[in-house]
UniProtKB/TrEMBL annotation:
PROSITE patterns: HTH_LUXR_2, RESPONSE_REGULATORY. Residues 151-216 form the HTH luxR-type domain. The modification 4-aspartylphosphate is found at D54. One of its GO terms (biological process) is regulation of DNA-templated transcription. Keywords: DNA-binding, Phosphoprotein, Transcription, Transcription regulation. The keyword Phosphoprotein applies. GO terms for molecular function: DNA binding. It comes from the Bacteria. Gene3D superfamilies: 3.40.50.2300. Transmembrane segments: none annotated. This is Putative two-component system response regulator.
Length: 225
């Protein structure tokens, strides 16, 4: 069971998030907080796995809440923090990541994306809304020297199935989404992902996304398959 805490000063948003999470048998809302003090106190007392924090202007208050949530206790006791925000400028995204969030979603995300994000943050994975991910990568590629172009021949070390997995991985798909798209089991998808990372000598999924963009597997603005 994944224990969640919802923090935000908008009652309507808290109610909406609670209603969505209540549809999942493995998610339970253990508390709600309407300000920083309540969020930190309830996090320490209730020990949630994930804290969903609604961050609105002024952003400094929200960032302070996040820093306190991730800065207290031992690593094993710290909750993952999923930030919900209507402001997704690059500066605010960078500030949130530096503050220690594990995930950032824009408030107009759908229920399915929110549920996936909570599960991912509970597993200590980093989650960003697809639009945020694409914008960060586009800006990264615009401001960093590109690797020497190797052409798609660099993918010859991969089987056709692994190339398809890389394409899905490069668009930010989770193992479960890859499995669903390819009609394979989650464990098989996990095995394919591990082999792709090993064969291409990529450290993690983030590097796989950058690799995909730099080598033409996907392009900025391309719709997710």
């Amino acid at each position: 069971m994944i224990r969640t805490l919802i923090a935000g000063d908008q009652p309507l948003l808290r109610t909406g998030v609670r209603t969505i999470l209540a549809t999942q048998p493995d998610l339970v809302v253990v508390g709600e907080a309407q300000n920083r003090r309540e969020a930190v106190e309830q996090s320490q007392n209730l020990r949630p796995d994930v804290v969903l924090v609604d961050v609105r202007p002024p952003m400094l208050e929200g960032m302070a809440t996040i820093r306190q949530l991730v800065g207290a206790g031992r690593d094993a006791d710290r909750p993952g923090v999923l930030m919900l925000t209507a402001i997704d400028t690059e500066d605010h995204v960078h500030a949130a990541l530096h503050a220690g969030v594990s995930g950032i979603l824009v408030e107009d995300c759908d229920a399915e994306e929110l549920i996936r994000a909570v599960h991912a943050v509970a597993r200590r994975q980093v989650v960003l809304s697809s639009g945020i991910t694409e914008r960060l990568i586009t800006n990264f590629l615009a401001t960093h020297p590109r690797l020497p172009h190797t052409g798609l021949g660099v993918l010859d070390v991969l089987t056709s199935r692994e190339q398809e997995v890389l394409r899905l991985l490069s668009t930010g798909r989770s193992n479960a989404e890859i499995a669903s798209h390819l009609f394979i089991s989650d464990q098989t998808a996990k095995t394919h992902v591990r082999r792709v990372l090993n064969k291409l000598k990529l450290r993690d999924r983030v590097h796989a996304v950058v690799f995909g963009y730099e080598n033409g597997v996907v392009v900025p603005g391309q719709r997710r398959p």
